[in-house]
Write a structure and sequence with these properties.
The complex is a heterodimer. By secondary structure, chain A is of the alpha/beta class. Helix content of chain A is about 25%, strand content about 15%. Chain A is globular, with a radius of gyration of 22 Å. At the A-B interface, helix 2, helix 5, helix 8 and helix 9 of A face helix 6 and helix 7 of B.
């Protein structure tokens, strides 16, 4: 029932991106009979359970430039294809806590930070969290069982117990524990980050995009790379200019535009959309577009244990240790963190575990692949105005569009968090008898947030509490760019919850004739 | 913190099968492009060119990959396939061919002109002396991404590969962890 809309049809909502935010907003609007054109820069991705093949197939490999503490040539790890980075995510879905929505209470005193509180109360978000969990098939919620605990989980749980940690849990994930909505129950294939071949993992392409495609109101244009968004003489967006699948530059007229291109490319497109009214980029009268980039304080530790673990078996991130998730100034730093169970295929492990290592000693360790364990640190990241996305002055992508330049430097607070968290991980592994514990380089960022943040007023942020631009009444941010602070949760559940809330707001504005 | 040389997970050309076809069951076919004339070396290079046969070059590359990750419980197959992938990569890339020739020359220079004839300890010392070179980093990245994506290596380290082929791990999700019992 695929619809097809004309380029000069100015009644459509144009959604840029088909990931968590773009997919959700598309499904919600089309369900109400609202016509949507979704422009996705990638194509359909065939999922195989083969980590080596899937890396190149999923990963966004267009040029991006990193600086500061980010890798220069690969600062960001996101996916490119229908479904966006939900193809690649590992489906962890914690909620923000009440405390995490008010981070200025503990980050406010840090040097240079620009953290603000959320302009939304938890009680208002809660109903949308409920709906998102139901819609995404989150196990452990709405009467669904949790996923089974793997051997790796049980080993980590035992290590946590011996180390005196109290809150190692098998936590809810957006992975089917029972067959539901035409998607299989989890077969415990492992390596969820390479995509799920049986669709047990919720991804936008097998969830909301599929729902939208079942209506008569949705057109998905693949391989359509947005260059800029234009506006009329009243300052309302009215056209989205993109390179189509044939490389031709075309423009789609629009009644409303929803930006859902990830917190990297959403500000990139806005900054590339200059005009006499918006000389510093569309919707950027505040100067906040691209700033306050947060990505979580992320680290990977690996350890070789005295016995077998088989960490590759089963869901990648089932277990999480929440002992330090709340702020506690007595630790010597602000903000919280959690450790998350993780696993790697051999080629990833050899690159991540001990960067730069080689020779007989390291190879002898690698022979014990079945003895490895690994954990991923996800810590709360204070916003800083100089951690930001800009347009690179030199590098352009294959479409001639300036590449995004992502500058990020860890705050001293985050370095203290690293030290504390690594010490706790070491305790866990030593309690299990491991004498070989390694801290990897921080991996490229995947939890990108904050670059078009919501705020109570247009001086402090780019969008209002509904993700609606303070400058442009019919322009919305529908992705992680609107999140004003990182918290400790993986951001996808909150992106979906906010998109559900935003869709309702858009419908109401349309009914009132405001857009 | 400088992460410019940070490795990223699993960057693979995914060409072991085509490479395998070129090598298994026949003499190693050397791409013509692997013959780098001495004169093609970068004039700014600080190394003195040393004449090498194509066979010697390939032998050095394979030996270096082995010494990066010496797995003695496997055949030469994974190392040969790693070489094949590398040769595929450089076949049309003069700059990389030059890079490799320069690197091999550096290894020879560090071992009295014949790295292959040196004992393992001297070979490893020579490799350590050039660890920061672009040549070493290129060889290192290639070895990581190819050797550890090789089925024979997977078998040797007890990694089952794609779990979809056998229906996943639902029935043996917890196995071999009795060793955690009885701890304090």
């Amino acid at each position: 029932m695929a619809a097809q809309f004309e380029l000069d049809d100015d009644s459509v909502v144009v959604v840029i991106g088909s990931g968590a935010g773009g997919g959700t907003i598309s499904a919600e609007l089309t369900r109400e009979g609202i016509n949507v054109v979704c422009l996705e820069t990638g194509g359909d991705i065939e999922i195989e359970t083969d980590a080596a093949k899937m890396w190149n197939r999923l990963t966004w490999l267009d040029p991006r430039v990193g600086s500061g503490d980010l890798p220069k040539n690969f600062p960001i790890w996101s996916a490119k294809g229908v479904g966006g980075t939900t193809l690649h995510w590992t489906a962890g879905v914690p909620r923000y806590s009440r405390e995490e929505l008010k981070p200025s209470a503990y980050f406010g005193g840090l040097d240079g930070v620009s953290t603000i509180d959320w302009p939304i109360e938890y009680d208002e978000l809660a109903s949308y969290y409920d709906k998102a969990e139901y819609m995404m098939g989150v196990c452990g919620t709405h009467g669904r069982p949790l996923l089974p605990e793997s051997g790796h989980y049980k080993v980590l749980e035992e290590g946590a117990r011996r180390a005196g940690f109290k809150r190692m849990v098998n936590h809810p994930m957006a992975i089917n524990s029972v067959t539901e909505n035409g998607r299989s129950e989890c077969l415990q294939l492992g390596f969820c980050s390479t995509g799920c071949a049986v669709e047990a993992k919720w991804s936008s392409n097998v969830g909301p995009i599929r729902e939208a495609q079942a209506t008569d109101h949705f057109e998905l244009r693949k391989n359509s790379h947005v260059l800029r968004v234009e506006h009329d003489d009243k300052g309302r967006v009215n056209r989205v200019v993109y390179k189509d699948a044939n490389g031709n530059e075309v423009a789609q007229k629009a009644r409303i535009v929803c930006m859902a291109a990830n917190a990297i490319d959403t500000p990139r497109i806005l900054l590339n959309s200059t005009s006499s009214r918006f000389p510093n980029g569309l919707a950027n009268s505040s100067g906040h577009v691209g700033r306050h980039f947060t990505k979580h304080v992320v680290s990977i530790v690996t350890a070789v244990l005295p016995g077998k673990v088989h960490f590759e078996r089963g869901t990648q991130n089932t277990g999480r240790i929440f002992d330090w998730v709340e702020n506690d100034s007595a630790r010597g730093f602000a903000g919280g963190f959690s450790w998350q169970q993780v696993s790697f295929d051999p080629a990833s492990l050899v690159q991540l575990s001990r960067p730069g290592a080689w020779g007989r000693s390291y190879t002898d360790e690698l022979k014990q692949y079945d003895h490895y364990s690994a954990m991923l640190l996800i810590g709360e990241d204070p916003a800083h105005p100089d951690n930001r996305v800009t347009l690179d002055a030199e590098v352009k992508d294959q479409h001639g569009m300036p590449a995004p330049h992502i500058h990020y430097v860890y705050h001293d607070n985050s370095r203290k968090m690293f030290d504390f968290a690594h010490a706790r991980a070491r305790e866990l592994y030593e309690a299990l008898g491991s004498e070989r514990f390694y801290i990897s380089n921080p991996p490229p960022s995947t939890h990108n947030m904050g670059t078009c943040r919501m705020a109570t007023n247009g001086d402090d942020g780019v969008v209002n509490p509904y993700g609606n631009s303070w400058d442009v009444p019919n322009l919305f941010m529908s992705d992680g760019s609107q999140l004003p602070s990182s918290g400790t949760p993986n951001p996808t559940l909150t992106i979906v919850a906010l998109a559900l809330r935003q869709a309702r707001h858009i419908r109401e504005k349309m009914v009132r004739g405001e857009v | 913190m400088n992460n410019d040389n940070q490795q990223i997970p699993v960057v693979s050309d995914n060409k072991p099968n085509s490479a395998r076809r070129r090598f298994v069951g026949s003499a190693m076919r050397l791409p013509l492009a692997f013959f780098v004339p001495v004169g093609a070396l970068d004039a700014q290079a600080s190394v003195t060119p040393v004449n090498m046969s194509p066979e010697q070059r390939v032998a050095m590359v394979q030996r270096m990959i082995y010494l990066l990750f010496p797995l003695d419980n496997i055949s030469e197959g994974p190392y040969q396939r790693s070489v094949a992938v590398l040769l595929d990569k450089i076949e049309q890339d003069t700059a990389r061919m030059t890079l490799i020739d320069q690197g091999l020359n550096m290894l020879n220079q560090a071992t009295a002109g014949d790295w292959l004839a040196a004992d393992e300890s001297a070979q490893v010392d020579a490799m350590k002396s050039i660890e920061q070179s672009p040549f070493f980093q290129f060889m290192y990245g290639n070895a990581q991404a190819t050797l550890f994506n090789d089925q024979e290596v997977w078998d040797a380290i007890d990694y089952g590969g794609s779990a979809l082929t056998f229906g996943g791990y639902r029935n043996n999700l917890v196995e071999d962890i009795e060793w955690i019992e009885g701890g304090n």
